[in-house]
Every structure is written in structure tokens, then in C-alpha cells.
Amino acid sequence: MISDDERGTDRQRGTDGRRVVLVHAHPDDESITTGGTIARYAAEGAHVTVVTCTLGEEGEIIPPALSELGAWAGDQLGGYRSAELAAAGRALGWTAHRYLGGMGRWRDSGMAGTPSAEHPRAFVGGDLDQQAEQLTAILDELRPQVVVTYDSHGGYGHPDHIRAHEITMAAAPRAASVQRVFHTVSSRRAVTDGLAALRAAGDVGFRVPADDELPTTPDEAVTTVVDIRAHRWRKFAALAAHETQVDVGPDCFALSNGIAQPVPGAEHFVLAHGPAEGAETDLFGGLR
Ligand SMILES: [Zn+2]
């Protein structure tokens, strides 16, 4: 339940008129892919809302002491991750947060081909139109000019990320306020440069992968580069808040696979809908 106090806070903060909603599949995705962008626009005074579609119940668990929370044992990971997400939100300073359809409505479907997709509340098994309507209701409430989600491949192919893309592309045209839709992507050049820096740094505590091991988008396709250097420390704090999912190292982080991922000084986007003029370095650039 959102209390009246929180609604009051929502109204008072984010008063510069710019409003953005970022749609993510699981707790941690918001910080990994768009943490710097969230922190930057929130710090500047924009109204920034993260929508999370599932509780991430099927995630791997890094700390051994927490492994019994998993879907294979206590099945309490979703509730635990909601607290991690709230801590990440405090680190990033976002204005508001919503769970699609209410907290716990849709369950993490797991990686492609796993039985968790058969769960009756699995996000990928739900009715797409119903989910798009749930998102449209959030957009109608918050009236963002800008909406952000993944590309049609979901960034790296996770079925829940693809579904988040699908419902966002269905909902955004139904919301009168939305002027631009962006897809969050990883810039090939930024990742390649970041990995080279990690190799030069020596032991970072994780395995530094080959350039082509991480999913990236060619820079010719990137339309929008958001400088996050002044807010990168908040992104690291938010990543650290997701302790079941993320290990933070020097200038990088790793998921349970132990593969180092760099944290570039910018986040990259592809404009999927709306006017391109002014969007080169600012999600809101050139909008009324
Ligand atoms: Zn995810």
C-alpha cells in the first residue's frame, strides 16, 4: 500500500516538470542498466518512477548465508529482494516506485526453458493485454513525457525482459502524455573500453571476459548518451544494495556468474519512438 505520506512526497518532489517512467523486469535491472540515469534526473529535480514487473523470485543467490531463501528452498527471495530494491531506490534517490499490477502480482519466469515459466503467476504466462493495461494505468497516473524499457531482445534475451519490452511498447501509445520511448542498451565501444581498463587494472576479483561475451549494441545504433559520471557513485551504492544478486568490485560488478562488467561513465539508449532532435545527450532534450 502506498501511504498518503508517500503520495504527498511524490507530489512535492520532482517539481521541474520533467517526468520519466522506467519499466524493468526484476529488482536489480534498474540499477544495472539505468542506475546512473535515474540518479541524475532525480538529482536534477525531475520526477523519476521505476516500475518493476516481478519480484525476481527465481534469481540466483550469491551470499551462501542467504541461499536457503531461494525458490528451491524457502522461496522467500522475492520478499527479500523487494527490500534490496527499496534500498537501491534510496541510494538512487528516485521519486516513486510501482510494482506492475501490485507487489507480487507477477512472478519471475526464470531463464528461458526453465519450469518456472509454467507457474500460474509467471510474468511471461500472463495476459499481455492485461499487463499492458496495468502499465497504462501507471502511465496515466504519473503522466511521463519519457518512458524507458529494453529493446526487443530484452537486452540479453531473458523472457521477462522481452515481456517488459512488449507491454511497454503496447502501453506507451495508449498514454497521452508520452512523447518519447527509449530502449536501454550497452554501447559496444563503452563496454570494450571498460573491459580494457579492467584488464589493465590487474586482478579485479572477477573474471574479465572477452569483448564479445557481454551483449552490446553497435554504437551506430545508439541515439542517446547520458553522462552519469557525477552520479556513478550512487549507481555503485544501488548495485551494492542488491547483495543477493550483485558483487561490487573496483570500477566493476559481477552477477552470480562471476563475470566482471564495467560501469561506464555514460548510459546508452536507442530512441524507439518520438522526436530525435535534442535527444543526443538528454532523454528530455528538445521536448516542450
Ligand atoms: Zn532482469
UniProtKB/TrEMBL annotation:
InterPro entries the UniProt entry points to: GlcNAc_PI_deacetylase-related, LmbE-like_dom_sf, Mycothiol_biosynthesis_MshB, Rhodanese-like_dom
Cofactor(s) needed for function: Zn(2+)
Principal EC category: hydrolase
The entry's keywords: Hydrolase, Metal-binding, Zinc
Reaction equation(s) it catalyzes: 1D-myo-inositol 2-acetamido-2-deoxy-alpha-D-glucopyranoside + H2O = 1D-myo-inositol 2-amino-2-deoxy-alpha-D-glucopyranoside + acetate
GO MF terms, alphabetically ordered: N-acetylglucosaminylinositol deacetylase activity
Entry-linked Gene3D superfamilies: LmbE-like
E.C. code: 3.5.1.103
Pfam families hit by this protein: PIG-L
Every Rhodanese domain range: 75-115
Residues that bind Zn(2+): 26, 29, 161
Transmembrane segments: none
Cofactor binding notes: Binds 1 zinc ion per subunit.
Role: Catalyzes the deacetylation of 1D-myo-inositol 2-acetamido-2-deoxy-alpha-D-glucopyranoside (GlcNAc-Ins) in the mycothiol biosynthesis pathway.
Family: Belongs to the MshB deacetylase family.
Protein name: 1D-myo-inositol 2-acetamido-2-deoxy-alpha-D-glucopyranoside deacetylase
This protein's encoding gene: mshB
